[in-house]
Design a protein that fits this description.
Blueprint lengths: L12 H23 L6 H8 L18 H12 L8 H22 L3 E2 L2 E2 L1 H5 L1 H20 L4 H28 L6 H26 L4 H28 L2 H4 L5 H4 L5 H9 L2 H15 L8 H13 L2 H20 L6 H16 L3
Antiparallel strand pairs: 1-2
Helix pairs in contact: 1-3, 1-4, 1-16, 2-6, 3-4, 3-8, 3-16, 4-6, 4-7, 4-8, 7-8, 8-9, 9-15, 9-16, 12-13, 12-14, 12-15, 13-14, 15-16
Length: 355
């Protein structure tokens, strides 16, 4: 079943795959060189996280992620009229911050699997997950500031602001797990911080390094922010109904963690019999000491109530709405037609992906 209902423009998957692969190919050597700076065993732990080695230190070609952010950073440079290579330090810096957040999130959420492999804290312990995450965050700023240019300083300011918002979003996400009710507006604010801010930075940082003015960078950030909200809405759908073979996570992943994601929040706000049953059930769950022993049928029933109350359909529509707002922001930026088409194709990819 598609993540977003039919009717959305078809995605040129070959073009998108080429963009993602270019981002990965150009950024990975610089990313590896940055990781090599870390003191042992952090360098090895980070290499495991990125999928370059297995748990025993042997080279591997494990899944290292979708590489959406590096692809955006390189396109960002081209949107400013410079070569994609100008955006490489920005691509690497954003990818380091993104993976800093993943290392910490996996530990805080208790996730044992990411990209079909055991997470770092599961293999190397919580202390290493924290330390390596901190180290990647520091490296991100080093990579930019070593450029020693005015543009690098501007780029670093945008990255640090985005990082702070990302951390705000994670704090909100955790606090919402313990609240009985969260509004749709609160959920969107949290997801804008947690996902939108860094994607916004990714799609402006290459342009800033290329000398773009603040207005151009701000409009690119607007595209990235709303793209991030679309991205997270799709993630929220996959977090409940995604195929574990595609996502690399457990079935009903977000329900197991009691996350107040968009489908849940929208369902609770909808009213009606299914919404009321869901509200009572989740309130009982919050007090239950047996939550960890719930069966697949228990989670499937909660998912069915969310869908019956309209939470799944509302979230699909919100992903499409945020996608449309993102594309509209691109109209405010003067850029080569080819780059505009590629940014549009990446946005389309985000809302129809299955992992």
């Amino acid at each position: 079943m598609p993540t977003v209902q039919p009717g959305h423009p078809a995605v040129d998957t070959a073009d998108v795959s080429a963009l993602l692969e270019r981002g990965r190919t150009l950024s990975t050597p610089v990313l590896r060189a940055a990781v090599d700076r870390l003191a042992p065993p952090m360098d090895t732990v980070a290499a495991y996280h990125f999928g370059w080695i297995d748990a025993h230190g042997n080279p591997t070609d494990a899944d290292s992620g979708k590489a959406v952010r590096p692809a955006l950073a390189l396109l960002s440079a081209e949107a400013a009229g410079v070569g994609p290579e100008v955006g490489i330090p920005g691509a690497v810096a954003v990818e380091l911050v993104h993976n800093f957040s993943l290392l910490h999130d996996d530990l805080m959420d208790g996730d044992e699997q990411r990209r079909h492999r055991d997470t770092v804290w599961k293999v190397h312990g919580p202390a290493q997950a924290i330390l390596v995450g901190d180290a990647l965050f520091a490296l991100a700023n080093e990579i930019l500031l070593e450029l020693g240019t005015v543009e690098a300083g501007r780029a670093t300011r945008r990255l640090t602001t985005a990082s702070r918002k990302l951390i705000d979003g994670q704090a909100q996400d955790i606090s919402y797990e313990h609240r009985e009710r969260v509004t749709v507006e609160e959920c969107l604010e949290m997801e804008g911080n947690k996902t939108g801010a860094l994607l916004a930075c990714a799609v402006s940082i290459g342009a800033v390094l290329g000398g773009a003015d603040d207005r151009t960078a701000d409009k690119l950030e607007e595209y990235g922010y709303h793209l991030g909200l679309a991205f997270q809405a799709v993630d929220d759908l996959l977090g409940i109904w995604g195929d574990p073979e595609a996502t690399g996570k457990q079935t009903w992943s977000d329900l197991r963690q009691r996350k107040k994601s968009l489908p849940v929040v929208a369902a609770l706000a909808a009213g009606g019999p299914a919404s009321e049953r869901l509200q009572r059930l989740l309130a009982e769950d919050a007090k239950s000491s047996e939550f960890a022993s719930f069966t697949e049928d228990d989670f499937a029933y909660r998912a069915s109530l969310i869908e019956e109350a309209g939470g799944r359909e509302w979230t699909s529509q919100e992903a499409r709405r945020q996608h449309a707002v993102a594309i509209e922001a691109l109209n405010e930026v003067d850029m080569p037609a080819r780059v505009r088409a590629q940014l549009t194709a990446l946005a389309d990819f985000v809302v129809v992906r299955k992992r």
